[in-house]
Task: structure prediction
Amino acid sequence: MSPRELLWADSEVYHRRLEKSGIALIAVARALSSDRELTSSIDESLIDEFLRLYEWVALADPDHFTQVWCDPGAYFWIRRAVHFLASCRGEPLGTVEREYCTEIGASSPREALAHHLREFKQFALALGIVSGKDVTFSEPYEAKLPLAIPGTPFVLIGDTRATIAGFSNGAIEVLNPRRILPLSNTGSTASSGLRVEVCPTVKCDNVSVFLNPATFHIPGIGIPNRWTQLPLAFQFEHAGLVADALSAIRRFQPWTFSHLAAGLQTIALKPYDQILVNVTASELPGAFVCTVPSDPYVLASSFIHEFHHNTLFGIEERGRFFEASDQDEIEGENHYSPWVETLRPLHGILHAVYVFIPVFRYWSAIAREGSLSEVRLGFAREQLAQIPAQLQIGVNQLRRHARFTPFGAMLVDALAAEAKEAQTEARAMGITLKTPVIGVTTSGALRPLVRAGRQVTVGQILLEHLEASDVLGECAAEKATLAAEMNG
Result:
């Protein structure tokens, strides 16, 4: 497979993650079954119940198991289980695991593992719902709310926590006080108290996506998530916008659209704030967060951007991109990036280069087709002027500062070639750095960016960003080149 095929055409990257996580689940169960000394301080009844539920899950219909285990939360769960087991053997906790421990109040890896094994009950509950089979927990599951029930559109909603005894006869059984929550009543108008609601499902051809912010309501994920407790009405309000954005991808970037059915399960919509706009969490493959309201064509470009973050995380599981060095390529915020105001890790810059190439192609297709409104075409031209310059700076930064593995070097060479192609294509379309900037308001409207009665250009924005954010002076040559082009 050529580097370009690996980067853009390999749809198996999403299935490989599922297969690996299934194999890891088997390994976790075997470790807990065969090495009780490893978990000597954990209540044996907790281990026994996990193993009982694991055996029940392992005997499930493969299609039912796949529906549940494709959920983004399954990958998060198995990664934490593997890492906590490793920490019980003396390995240091990772960043996500440390944040997880802080959020749940665990003082040791074994305490965190005990908590985490209890969280496996959400997958047993989901499998009961999907298969229509009863499942009972020996120790009730104390679920933090809201709870996205994996692989389903159901969300358990209430004040803070629910004590779940199991699933029986089409209903979730809860305690304190004892009652049942029939899934057949999810269309009720109840707006308070413990209840089951259904999140929106948006469909476009063979692509089916849940709009479910509760997917991100988990400890250690590393992003602010207070917005995950917003009423699902917010997701329903913008479901049509999501459908329009998916249709735009189908129209203007069909090769990405062809991957969505395999690689995208959940989108969480949030209102605008100054903390984050759009984000993908590496530990939740197949899910991302986007801010609305938005122009549908701009939202489509955000979907393409975030989806390709997911894809590159999957590609990275084939092999490391970076050689070991004395700097932290993954988390060390040490280098200028043309996309953000703060210094970034090399890993983040590599991701930005990768995801903005399909974003460029999307806006190029829109500009070439030429049928959208003038303000949208103006936004497309702005993107075609800005992205190639940013890509070149990003590639230069990687080549200056990164030490790549052979696998990483092969992929970066391919990305660098595509960055050059983007520059050539933009020039052929008559796009220059003097292209006016079209801003996006907090209401999602597109408006020309004007200062002192004059439209701001892409070149101005790029130079201002370098001046303000290249605090280490890493990109003086690029700054001089941009200034020369602006003055030419």
The two ends are 42 Å apart (CA to CA). The mean pLDDT is 95.
